[in-house]
Amino acid sequence: MTITITAFERSPHGGRRLARDTRIPWALEETGLPYEVRLVSFKAMKGPAHLALHPFGQIPTYEEGDLALFETGAIVFHIAEHDAGLLPKHANARAPAITWMFAALNTVEPPILDLVTARFFEADKPLGQGALAPG
What we know:
This protein is of the alpha+beta class. The chain contains six helices and four strands; from the N terminus they run E-H-E-H-H-E-E-H-H-H. The termini are far apart.
């Protein structure tokens, strides 16, 4: 069964590795699973076909046969369940791995994204300058 993931049509390098969807090709490549990338325009993301896959009209999505998933954490968890290198089978090793997966999504990533936003999109504005100020 072919795995198909979606990425932004206008992203550099075909949307691979330069957006928040990075986790999915990374997990797939770690497991050695082959996959295809379907590039999606901003207009198509709001269309009925894409909304059937992702109710918020965003990327990424993951399709494998009749299975369709959205949200990077859920997709990576699904991929990891099939590879002991990403998600150990033993409960005492599995639970900490899941904890770190949630920590990456909810604790580590948000301040990094805030910094990236301030540096690249708001550096010339007072709020961005305040976020970039030392200390």
